[in-house]
Each structure stands twice: as structure tokens, then as C-alpha cells.
Amino acid sequence: MAMILDAFVGRYIGKLSEVIEGEISTILGVKGELTRLSEIMKSIKDYLEAAEKRRHTDETIGIWVKKLKDVMYDADDIIDLCIIKGGRLLEDHPSESAVRHHFSLCSCFSCIKFRYEIGGKIRKLNNRLNMTLEDQSKLSSLERIRHDDVRVGGVNHRQTSPDVVTKSRIVGAQIEEDTKSLGEYKEDETKAELLSRLSPLLSKRFFIVLDDVWNADLWEDLLRNSFERATASGRIVVTTRHTNVVGSMRGDGNTEADIHHVKKMDNESGWEMLRKRIFGDDVVEEVISDLKEVGVKIIEKCDGLPLAIKTIAGVLSSKEKTNTEWSKVLKGDAWSMNQLDKELPGALFLSYDDLSSDLKQCFLYCSLFPEDCTMDPDDLIRYWVAEGFVKTAEGDDLMEDVAEDYYRELITRNLLQPCDIFGELSDLAGNYCRMHDLLRSLALFFTRDESICIDKEQPRNINPSTKIRRLSIVNIGEKVEVPNIIIQQKCLRTLIMWGNWKSFLFFDSESYWRSDKTTMVENELFKKLRFLRVMDLSKTELESLPDSVGDLLHLRYLDFDRTKIKKLPESIGCLVNLQTLNLSGCELLHTLPKAITKLCNLRCLRLEGTSLTHVPKGVGELKHLNHLQGLVMGHDDRRDDEGCDLKELQSLCQLRFLEINRLERTEPAGAPVLGNSRFLRTLILNCKEQEDDAEATAIQKIDTIYNDLSPQSTHLRRLEINDFFDMNFLAPVHR
């Protein structure tokens, strides 16, 4: 499950306290019921970490935890409604005295109706909680463990051939475990495309790698005949976890084939790998000699698997470098997690179990991405924030800063692998990351009751008793569709759509995951998915958005990156909880609705790569913005609409990233506009490219504008200026 109870309830109590202490609970008349709810939450909080640990080994506790999670999800939805509806009432009646004396007859009846409905929902919620907690035998069992201190895949086949060809052309293919014979594929062009890539290679000496093959159908149904007709000689390397696959691919015995069983690491090699992972080259021999004995015993438990050793190194790196601390890891119960698939080493579970509750939720969420898919850290960070997995930041930090620390720790612990878009390793802050297939299997094991990633071309049955909270769909068709059983459950929180995620993927283009089919979403769909927090449709070619998107009052994350959307409905202004709106690369989008300025909780607005003529005046009201990219200044002379100006930036105090376009169209502010943006890290300033030399008055104007934009932040890491008329403005920037 992606929800980890103790983390979720802890943040929920904080959220609940804010509502109780504020005016919302008063205007709704629900302070008493909410206080009772808060007291119940506080009374069970201490049991929850123990319950999470026990649910994997105790079926009774597991059922109890599942019921409690269902209640907590509903509780979160109800508090959201209180905040939304109560906030609207407070806007109409900004003080308690106004609430008491100045209701219109119509608003009075409306308020009474909602107060009655929300009060009833909270009472039912409290009753459900009490019923869940009535079984004292479970609680007494948890009481006894509440203070407990419980803290082959994985072999890199490519590392076994360091001297293999350095200059080659490579065709990449992904083969899924549960595929049928290639002749039965619905997408016939997949086979043809692969053959067209192979044909020119087979007329020259070739070296081809088929990595992680699960069955021999690929060879028998597609590749065998092609290679037998090859006019040149070559070599094929097959890596697999299954000996019978290699036996089948050897054919009738006439084909030359050597089978090399990759050996697991011996203890000494494993210890050397562990030591370097933790200490690097800076080693204190006294420390190493004291730790080697227990370290080698840990290596033995990793069963010679490099992935297991890497993840355990991540655990040990977070501990004190003492024999006592390492011995605790060695003796931990997590090594013997019997419920796991035999393919999953106990070291992987121990690495997961050692994470904080916050990090566990973030790690598990990554299972929504298809196998071997690259993940953008910026997307992950904002997904996590939208889902409520990130604890409230302290001091001047933002939740996104905290989430970035989470991401870095998952990288450091080797639970995510940094890479660039082409799969090459990069530094810690690499552009993308991946999750190893065994670690993804581990995450899928724990999320199986809440999350699912399905392929529309390979339908699978969904257990009606399983409440799906998070859904990822690959190979979507002409329109965005969700299985009826999930719609009927009315509890979906995340929806991520993927395009043509083929069984064979060619990595010469980013278009491999995009769908050229999915162009529409029906109006009724959003009305049935009212509790969505995250909706990512960026892997589609969506052309329009129905008005019913405004019904998604709980929505925090909305992504249309590089879709063909032409217009946003005015109803988007109803999304008062929205934190991220990504419209980057929407080349057919020319205007934004005025209602976009009502998104009072917006934290990230991405507009780069669009065809916007202007951005409506009022952006300065979005005071929570920390990432504003592609902001178009001024307005088109052919339109009457008023665009935003420099002065609006003065109120955006939380900006970390700011990109401004068409600066030549705005007027000077007459004062510094970024003086309040003390933590700005990236500033990108763009003018329209000039075909002729600019006039002196235009140069003087733009100089004044750039003086107004001189960054005051001591945190600035990147300053980029494009198509500027004059460079004199650099003097104040240097000062």
C-alpha cells in the first residue's frame, strides 16, 4: 500500500488541528465532531507503526490495518471538503461577526444544508472509527510491540563482459514476461518495425544482446529465421534468469551456443564492494578491521547478489559505523520476510523496512511507472507533494525542498538509480532515474491492495474487494477510459496515462511512450472521479478538456505536457486545491482563461513552449507559486485583454524558478520587483528576437526593465538572458 498509516495519520492530525483552531470549524458548526475525531486519531497514533510492521506477518492485523486505511482515506476527503466549502463561506463572510449577522436568506439555507451534510459525514466517520477500534484484542496485541526496535535478479550481466565491442549499433527490445506469441500481437507494426531495424545489421558482422529474456517465443517466432538468413556472421548474447529459455534457444544442437552461468559474488568480493560503497577510498583501517567480521556475515545474507549488497550499503551508510549498529542490521527480523516472492532477496526488504514512513510512501509510489521506465525527479517530487506524502517544511524550506531530500536519499540508498534519458549513469542530481525490476517487484508487492499498473492490450481481472486508489494505464486507446470496477469504487486518487508502451521499445526517440491515438476525454468521466489528487495526461495527444474538470475539487496535480490541447475551460478556476498545472509544450494553446488567477494554492505553473499571446492579469494573486516558467509579459496589440506586468512579481515571495518571455512588451515597474524573492535560484529572461537593430528608446526601456529585475537573492544559481538588446544592465547584476 502507498499509504503508511503512522505517517498519514500524523500529518492528518496536524491538518485537522488547523481546521479546528481556525474559523472554518466555527462557520460549519462542526468543531465538536472534529475535536472528537482528532482525539480518536491521537489515541491510536502510537500503535500504527507497529501495526504496519505486523500486517505482513499477521493476517488479522493486516485486515484491521486495511479497514483503518479505508477510513483514513475517507477522513482525508471529508477534511478537504470542510476546507473548500468553509473557505468559500469565509470569503463571503470574512469575520465571525459577519457569519452571525449578515447571511442572506439564500446563503443561510445553503450553509445550513451543507453544515447538516458535513456534520453527518463526520459523525458517520467517527462511528466507523470506533467500530474499527472496538476489537481490543488487536490493540492489546499491538500494545505489546509498540516499543519494539525493529529496524536472483540483482546480478548485472553486462558487468561480466568488460571487453565486448565498443563500437556498435544497438537495437533495443523489451520483452514482457506475460506476452503471448508475437504473431498474436494486436500491434502488428511492432514486429515489422523490429525486423526493419535488424535487416541492415545482418548483412554485416553483428553483435546483438537480448537482455532479461523470460521465454523463448521471441527467438522461435521472430528472430530465428532472420538470423539463419543472415549474410554475415555474428554473435548473440542472451541473458535470462531461466535455464530452460537458454535450452530452447539452442535449437537442435547444430547451433553453436555456450552457456555461461553468472556466478554470485564471493564473500571477499562482496565485502570489497560493500566497503567501497560505504567508505569510498577514504578508509580508516582500524574502523574497517573492527567491522569486517560482521560485514562479511551481512554479505553472506545477501547471497552474493550485487543489487542486494548495494541496497544494504545504503542502509549501513545511514547508521553509525560501529559494530553494535551493524550487528543490529545483521540480526534484524526483516531478513526473514517469508511472504515475499523467492526471487526477492531479504536484503531488499530490509532496505525498504529501514526507510522512514515518509520515504516508504514515496518509494512505493514509483511502482506506478512501467518497468524500465525513466522517471523525471521533478515529476516525482510534485506527485509526492500532491499525494500528501511530504511532511510540512520548517523554516524557509518548501515542501518541494523536503521532497527533493527524499529523492536524494532514495538515490543514496540505491533504491532508485540515477540515469540520463539514454540510460547512462549520471551524478546524484541526474536528469532521470529508474527503479530496478526487483525493487519494483518489491514495491508492487506492498502496493497490491491499493495501486495497479495495467496494460489495456492485455486485460487483467481486478478483485472487486480491492479498492484501487492509484491507477497507471499503458497502451490507452482513442479516449481516456478507466475500468468500470474502479469507477464504481469512487476512491481513485491518482490517474496516470501512458501511450504506446510497446512490448518492443526503440530508444532513438522520446516518442516511444506517447500515444498518437488518445485525443479525447468524456465529460462524464471526471464527474465519476471526484476524489482525484493527481491526473497526468501528458503522454496523450489530448485536444480538448470537458467542463467537468472543475468538479475535481481535490485535484492537486494536473499535467498536459506536450498535448494538443487548444483551450482550457473557465471551470478550471474551481480547482482551488490545485498545486501544479503543467502546460509546457502545448503548442496549440493560445490563451488562458481568466479563471486561472483563482487557483489560490498553485505552486507550479509551467507555460514554456506554448503559443500564448498573453497571461491574464492577476498572476500576482497566486502567492504560493514557487515555480513559474514561460510567463508571457504584456499583451497582444490585436487583443483587448490585459496581460500581466512586472509589478505582479513583487508579491511572489516564494519563487525558486522564474522564466519570463516577451519582456520588451511590458513597462518598467519603477522599483525592484524581485526584492521579496529572497530564495530565487533560477532566473531566465527572454525578449523576442530582433531582426533589425533596436532603437535607442527601446534599449533605454529594456535597460530600465532589467534594472527592475536585478535579482536580490543570494541563492541564485543560474541566470540566463536571451535575445537582449543591450548588455549595460549587467553592471547592477554584478554588483
Strand and helix map with partners:
Blueprint lengths: L4 H17 L2 H5 L2 H24 L4 H34 L3 H6 L3 H29 L2 H8 L45 H10 L7 E5 L6 H12 L5 E5 L4 H7 L17 H13 L5 H17 L4 H12 L5 H8 L15 H8 L3 H9 L11 H11 L11 H14 L4 E3 L12 E3 L2 H11 L3 E5 L14 E5 L9 H6 L4 E4 L25 H6 L5 E3 L20 E3 L20 E3 L21 E3 L20 E6 L24 E5 L20 E5 L9 H13 L9 E5 L7 H5 L1
Parallel strand pairs: 1-2, 5-6, 6-7, 7-8, 8-9, 9-10, 10-11, 11-12, 12-13, 13-14, 14-15
Antiparallel strand pairs: 3-4
Helix pairs in contact: 1-3, 1-4, 3-6, 4-6, 11-12, 11-13, 12-14, 13-15, 16-18, 17-18
How is this structure best described in words?
It holds the Pfam family NB-ARC. This is Disease resistance protein RGA1. GO terms for molecular function: ADP binding. Keywords: Leucine-rich repeat, Nucleotide-binding, Plant defense, Repeat. Belongs to the disease resistance NB-LRR family. There is one protein chain. The protein is an alpha/beta fold and 735 residues long. The chain folds into four domains: 5-143, no CATH class; 168-249; 267-439, no CATH class; 470-734, Ribonuclease Inhibitor (Leucine-rich repeat, LRR (right-handed beta-alpha superhelix), Alpha-Beta Horseshoe). Helices cover 39% and strands 9% of the residues. It is built from 23 helices and 15 strands. The protein has helices at 5-21, 24-28, 31-54, 59-92, 96-101, 105-133, 136-143, 189-198, 217-228, 243-249, 267-279, 285-301, 306-317, 323-330, 346-353, 357-365, 377-387, 399-412, 437-447, 484-489, 523-528, 696-708, 730-734, and strands at residues 206-210, 234-238, 417-419, 432-434, 451-455, 470-474, 494-497, 534-536, 557-559, 580-582, 604-606, 627-632, 657-661, 682-686, 718-722. The chain has an eleven-stranded parallel sheet, covered by helices on one side. The chain has a two-stranded parallel ribbon with strand order 1-2. Strand 14 (682-686), helix 22 and strand 15 form a beta-alpha-beta unit. Helix 3 packs parallel to helix 6, helix 4 packs antiparallel against helix 6 and helix 13 (306-317) runs parallel beside helix 15 (346-353). The longest helix is centred in the N-terminal third of the chain and has 34 residues, at 59-92. The protein starts with a helix and ends with a helix. The model is unreliable at 96-106, 144-155, 157-189, 423-429 and 502-513 (pLDDT under 50).
